[in-house]
Structures are given as C-alpha cells and as structure tokens.
C-alpha cells in the first residue's frame, strides 16, 4: 500500500478510535443540539413569525427551521474539538511524531481533516435520525443530498479548527476559542433565526451574519436537506475553506513552528 | 420513542407525492378582498387562472357535471353562475341579501343559501332561476349542509348558536338543536347518519345523530403553543371513507386531523394564517386549505399529514371547490 494511503488509514483510524473510546464525547455532541431542538425550540415555537423563505415551500415550525443550524453546530463543535485534540497532541508530543513523518505536511493535515470530518458527518446523521424519531423530518431524498453539504461544511469547520490549533499553544487558551470563535460564529448566523429577522432589529448584525461563513455553511445544509442547491452558499463555503486551509498550512509551516522534518 | 423509519418513510412519501402527483384537476378558490377566483392546477400546484367575480366572493360550489360554478358574491347580494371553461359570468341567481354559504341539493337543481343579514335560508331553483322558498332561521345563518339522500338540509346560525333542521320536502323547520358559540360549518357524514357542526368561538365540533337530532359527541381542540382563544374551528372535510376529518382551526393557523370513529384528535398540521375552508383533489390524496390572512393556499399530503407547499393566491382566500 502506498505510504500516502497507509498514513491516511492510520490517521483516520486513530480519529475514529479516539471518538469511539470517548463515548461521553459522542453523547455530549448529540445532547447539545438535542437540548436546543427539544427544549429551546419548544419555548420559542411561536417566535419565528410567519414567512416562507427558500428552500421551504410552506410554513414550518421552529423545530424544523433550526435542524440545519444544529447540524452546523455539531460540525462546528467537532471542528473545534478536533482543534483541541491537536493542541493536546502537541502538548503530549504525539504531534511531533506525526509531523516528523517523511510524507508532506499538507497530506498529513488533510488526513487529519478528513478523519474529523467523517466523525462530524456521522454525528450529524445520528442527530437527524433522533430528530426524525421526534417527528421532525425532511424529505427522504434530503437525507441523501445533505451528505455532500455536510462534508463541505465539515471540511470548512475542520480547516478552521486546524488553523486555530496552529496558533493555540496551550490547552488553557482553548476557553478563548469558545468565547471568540464558537459563540460569535453560531449566534451571528442563520442557524437560530432567519436573516430577515435579524435585519429587522439591526442592519449591522445582519451584515455581519451575511458575511459569517458559518451562515453559508448552514444555508448550504438547509438547502441540501430539501434537495436544493444553494450556489452562492457553496461558493462562499469553498472559498473560505481554501482560505482556512491555506492559513492552516502556513500555520503548520516548519519554518514557523520549528517542528521540522528529519529524514 | 417513535420508530424512526416510519417518519422517514412518511417524509419521503410526502416528497414523492409532491413530485409525482398526476391526478389532473383544479382547485377553485374565492378571494374575498380581491373579488376574484384563483384556479390552481392540482398537477403543477400553481395558479393557472384568475377570474373576476362580483363583490366579496365567499361560498363556491360546482354543478354535478362541473359545467357551472356557483359563487356567493356576498356584497353584490347575488349568487353568480360562471362558465368554468371561460370564466364568464353567465347570469346571477336571486339569492336574497348577503349570501355567504350555500349547498347544492343532490338533485343538482336546488341551492340552499344562507342569507346572513336577513336570518333566512333561501331556496333557489337554478334552472328556473326563481326563489322556491325562504325559511326563517336563527340570526346570522352561515353553515349549510344537505343530507346525501336530499331529505334534510341544515342551516347553522352564528348568533342564535343553533343548527336548524329543514325538511326539504316541505321546506319547513322540523328541529332546532343548540350548539356551541358561533356555528360556522355543517356536514353530513357516514351516509348521512351523522351531522357535524363546527363552533368557531366555542372551539368545538358537535356531532349529531341524524335520526334523532341528538348530540352524540363533542370534539375539542388544543394546539401546542397557541392560546385556546385562537383555536377556532371553521371549515372541515372528510377523507375517503369518512375515516378522518380535517378541521380548519382559523387563527391558530393549524389543521386538526380527527378520527371520525373515536372523535379523537390525532394530529395538528401547521398551515397558513387564519385557515378557513378547504377542498380535496380528485383521489383525496391532497387537501387544499384557504388561509385568509396570509393570502395563500396550503397543500397538505393526506397520507403523511404534512404540508407540502403554500401557493400565493389573491387577498383573503375564503372558499374552495374541486373540479376534475
């Protein structure tokens, strides 16, 4: 087997094993969006107002509205979790071991990204299944068409995690990620409320939401769940993914990190 | 916990039905504030035609052969007869003042019309275009129904809170039964053995035994997250075989699905604002509801009980009728 594939298999398997062995992490990853879906959304059931926006063709309950945003939440938290584990790896020394591999660094980081995205997508599907059990369903075809959207969004948020991990030197600094990355990204997006609703209260907040890449990731998922393609959201997500990935590669540049490869 | 597969399949069914429905037909909807009727294709789920009518069109029904459509033009004090193929008004029928709802007798000849302002029910012969009878009923009559055998007609009066039972042979009242506040709509069901009346303010449906005119059951509604005052049952229709009733709950913006055997509410479906009346397509697989305030018609998949699409029509859509 090519060393590339060997490393791919090894890194993805390691990610999978780490996830399987941390059952509480899986439960936590599902409990978080489920609390939003079953508690928060129930309280705000009538708060959304009545307006039909694409991709919806009729009136929907708030629970239905926030499902794509909560899928995005799973991907976002998982991306950050992956970032956290990279910082942990660096502290424990296993990162050094990985990066001293003779394979190109971009390939190693790509394998890491792929591994975390697969875990994210599986979690998102588990969440969709539980939502369906509570009668919050999408068209059947939507469960298929959402897969590429989840992958694209998962890669974007995983790349963001990689980027952050290249700059965060210690686990203690991770709390800042929560305050300055996860919360603003999630709340300043279309995950919990449609943007027209945001525009009603503040034009500035609306503009920030419209530029937030997480908004576009959520909209990409939302449209895909209804077997529709949101071109602008897709382009925006891919563009931002490229930017995050390029920045992450720069962040992991041996000349910058001081972790150089030795032959 | 509910089985996942059932719901996923239900969602899929809704989608497939939405995308592959081939039962051609039209839903005609009266637009109260636009003085028009909108014609929706049951195949494309789009408005394919809009015709002008008299002022404030509300009740709408077709003749048996679908060659004529009768429209209550309430503020024109007329029932208009339209050619559905051309949209041309053929003539007006003498309807009495402010006709709101009506029902066509199974003989295809007599229209029973509720005259809201005059507290009477007018019976019109659609062929001779003459008033056959005028029957004094309670104040503000609205809901109209006729039994499948044509022997009994019902008028409900909004202010008197009664269902008035009319013997169609003599055109005389033979019974008056109390119902809850502001009865709006009446329907015979199960081969005429039961008669259902919705009460808008009372928030209930009263089920009568037709033979004895006695109350058999009362159905109440409760929509999660909606104040009980806003749960106002108005129009309702029955599925194939009269197994279930779909009930429009007015400003609660929901439909209720009632099991017609147990009288239990099984489901609620979110539709547009102030849902009022409704009509089924040809095979009763889809239901079209008129949503007055949001100015649209919501298409509901009957099997999965899911709203599929809301179609913009004119302002304040009110009545709905199907033609193949």
From TrEMBL, chain A:
Q: Which GO terms describe its cellular component?
A: ATP-binding cassette (ABC) transporter complex
Highest taxon of source: Bacteria
A single Gene Ontology molecular function, please? ABC-type transporter activity
Subcellular location as annotated: Cell inner membrane; Membrane
Q: Which keywords appear in this protein's UniProt record, sorted alphabetically?
A: Cell membrane, Membrane, Transmembrane, Transmembrane helix, Transport
Domain ABC transmembrane type-2 span(s) in chain numbering: 24-255
Q: Which InterPro entries match?
A: ABC2_TM, ABC2_TM_bact-type, ABC_2_transport, Alc_ABC_transptr_permease, T7SS_ABC-Transporter
Please give the start and end residues of each transmembrane region: 34-53, 65-88, 109-134, 140-164, 176-196, 233-252
Membrane topology classification: Multi-pass membrane protein
Signal peptide annotation:
none
The record's comment on protein family reads:
Belongs to the ABC-2 integral membrane protein family.
Protein name (Swiss-Prot/TrEMBL): Transport permease protein
Give the originating organism: Litoreibacter halocynthiae
Q: What is the lineage of its organism?
A: Bacteria, Pseudomonadati, Pseudomonadota, Alphaproteobacteria, Rhodobacterales
Automatic annotation (TrEMBL), chain B:
Tell me which domain of life the UniProt entry assigns to the organism this sequence originates from.
Bacteria
The reply to whether Transmembrane figures as a keyword in the UniProt entry is: no
InterPro entries per the record? Host-pathogen_enzymatic-act, N2O_reductase_N, PQQ_b_propeller, WD40/YVTN_repeat-like_dom_sf, YNCE-like_beta-prop, YVTN_b-propeller_repeat
Q: Which of UniProt's keywords are assigned here?
A: Signal
Give the signal peptide range.
1-24
- A Pfam cross-reference name: YNCE
The segment(s) forming the YNCE-like beta-propeller domain are 22-319
Q: Does the keyword Signal apply?
A: yes
List the NCBIfam families hit by this protein, alphabetically.
Answer: beta_rpt_yvtn (TIGR02276), PQQ_ABC_repeats (TIGR03866)
Q: Which named protein is this?
A: PQQ-dependent catabolism-associated beta-propeller protein
């Amino acid at each position: 087997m090519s060393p590339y594939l060997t490393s791919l298999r090894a890194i993805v398997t390691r990610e999978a094993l780490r996830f399987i062995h941390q059952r509480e992490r899986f439960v936590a990853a599902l409990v978080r969006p489920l609390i939003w879906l079953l508690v928060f959304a129930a309280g705000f059931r009538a708060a959304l107002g009545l307006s039909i926006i694409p991709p919806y063709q009729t009136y929907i309950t708030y629970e239905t509205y926030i499902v794509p945003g909560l899928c995005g939440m799973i991907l976002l938290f998982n991306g950050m979790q992956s970032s956290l584990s990279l910082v942990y790896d660096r502290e424990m020394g296993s990162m050094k071991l990985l990066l001293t591999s003779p394979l190109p660094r971009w390939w190693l980081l790509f394998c890491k990204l792929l591994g975390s995205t697969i875990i994210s997508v599986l979690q998102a599907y588990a969440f969709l299944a539980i939502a369906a059990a509570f009668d919050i369903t999408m068209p059947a075809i939507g469960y298929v068409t959402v897969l590429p959207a989840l992958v694209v969004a998962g890669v974007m948020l995983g790349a963001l995690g990689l980027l952050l991990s290249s700059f965060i030197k210690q686990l203690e600094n991770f709390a800042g990620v929560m305050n300055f990355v996860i919360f603003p990204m999630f709340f300043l997006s279309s995950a919990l409320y449609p943007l027209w609703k945001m525009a009603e209260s503040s034009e500035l907040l609306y503009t920030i939401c419209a530029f937030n890449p997480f908004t576009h990731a959520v909209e990409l998922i939302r449209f895909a769940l209804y077997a529709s393609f949101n071109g602008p959201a897709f382009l925006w997500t891919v563009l931002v993914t490229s930017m995050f990935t390029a920045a992450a590669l720069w962040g992991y540049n041996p000349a910058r990190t001081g972790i150089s490869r030795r032959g | 916990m509910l089985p996942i597969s059932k719901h996923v399949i239900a969602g899929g069914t809704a989608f497939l039905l939405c995308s592959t429905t081939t039962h051609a037909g039209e839903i005609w909807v009266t637009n109260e504030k636009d003085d028009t009727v909108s014609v929706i294709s049951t195949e494309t789920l789009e408005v394919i035609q809009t015709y002008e009518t008299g002022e404030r069109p509300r009740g709408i029904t077709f003749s048996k052969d679908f060659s004529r459509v009768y429209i209550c033009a309430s503020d024109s004090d007329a029932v208009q007869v339209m050619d559905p193929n051309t949209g041309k008004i053929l003539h007006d029928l003498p309807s009495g003042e402010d006709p709101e709802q009506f029902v066509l007798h199974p003989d295809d000849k007599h229209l029973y019309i509720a005259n809201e302002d005059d507290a009477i029910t007018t019976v019109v012969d659609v062929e001779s275009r003459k008033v056959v009878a005028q029957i004094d009923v309670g104040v503000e009559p609205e809901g109209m129904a006729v039994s499948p055998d044509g022997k009994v007609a019902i008028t409900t009066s909004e202010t008197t809170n009664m269902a008035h039972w009319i013997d169609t042979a003599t055109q005389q009242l033979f019974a008056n039964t109390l119902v809850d506040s502001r009865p709006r709509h009446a329907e015979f069901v199960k081969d005429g053995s039961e008669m259902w009346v919705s009460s808008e303010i009372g928030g209930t449906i009263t089920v009568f035994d037709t033979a004895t005119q006695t109350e058999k059951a009362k159905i109440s509604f409760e929509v999660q997250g909606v104040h009980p005052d806003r749960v106002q049952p108005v129009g309702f229709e029955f599925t194939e075989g009269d197994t279930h009733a779909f009930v429009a709950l007015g400003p609660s913006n929901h439909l209720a699905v009632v099991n017609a055997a147990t009288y239990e509410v099984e489901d609620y479906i979110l539709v547009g604002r102030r849902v009022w009346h409704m009509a089924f397509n040809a095979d009763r697989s889809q239901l079209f509801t008129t949503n007055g305030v949001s100015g649209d018609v919501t298409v509901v998949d009957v099997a999965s009980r899911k709203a599929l699409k809301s179609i913009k029509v004119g302002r304040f859509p009110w009545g709905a009728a199907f033609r193949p």
